[in-house]
Design brief:
With 267 residues, the chain is mainly beta. It contains two helices and 19 strands.
Amino acid sequence: MRVRALVVAASGALALSALAVPAAQAAPAGPAVTFSQVKVNGGKNIVVGPTTKVTVAASYTVTKPAGLNANSFITFPVLYRGGTLTINTPDKDVWGGDEPGTCTASSATVLKCTAKIQFRPLGNTDYGDLTNALAGAWKLGAAAVNDSGLTTGSNLGSAKLQRAATLTTDAAPEPVKKGKTLTVTGKLARANWDTGKWAGYSAQAVKLQFRKKGSSTYTTLKTVKTSSTGTLKTTVKATVDGYYRYVFAGTTTTPAVAAAGDFVDVK
């Protein structure tokens, strides 16, 4: 969700007026707090399919003056791009959850907080604003809002927001005579958040691996590049019974994925 909407919904008209300033100006100073220990999705990459909403947990610590009432401000974690976190209009490079965080005091000056962050592709039937252009590396930050204004914390960690991937393998013919040629096909696809569908991932290096029957270890045979539609095709000589699979190492925008092994009986 766009963070400005979260700030307005959670803190009301006073916070809105505080944030409605020209982009070249800083928003008025908010509560005197600092942020640390921001973690989103347990430190794992955030992987989103073509249509389904994904909600991840976040945790963070807020340090405040002993005399500052914790109920006098709201806080929330965000993902953002750029050098320093700014929440302005437009805020296309800042991403936060639907609701502010929930905090519990661990001392007079320290709050331990948790929150949820939602990701909805454009194809989601609820409402979506997650587009393909938003896949990749993000920084982690946090913000606090009260009637006076806004306080932000920048460069508090990093996260990757990725388009979910699928990968298939099919080795044929099955069974096959020893020494004959096997053709191994497959397809690498990833979520298209703009259309709400799966789309082939082109020009990607994918490893073809083999595991002998009775073994638990795969060995890489060769590297194959996907076509313009994400398809894979190569040939190998059949030697012994075993499993063939394609494996993709992943990119910044797309997670690693391994296909299920396809067993071939060699006669």
